[in-house]
């Protein structure tokens, strides 16, 4: 993991096509701007965790349904 200090209006480059810039700093938050190609998926980490959890829960539900159908067909 890279840890880097940036001040307001400073940024960093990721690869050739992603730029991140610090646009605001307040007491407990940093506001960033991300310039990336439209096809690049950008999600907040807590949202990504929620999506992954929902996908896992959906899979378990599907497996339970499949097992119920399997038992029904006997």
Automatic annotation (TrEMBL):
Gene3D superfamilies: Translational regulator CsrA. One of its GO terms (biological process) is regulation of bacterial-type flagellum assembly. InterPro entries: CsrA, CsrA_sf. Pfam families: CsrA. SUPFAM superfamilies: CsrA-like. GO terms for cellular component: cytosol. One of its GO terms (molecular function) is mRNA 5'-UTR binding. It comes from the Bacteria. Belongs to the CsrA/RsmA family. This is Translational regulator CsrA. It comes from Oceanirhabdus seepicola.
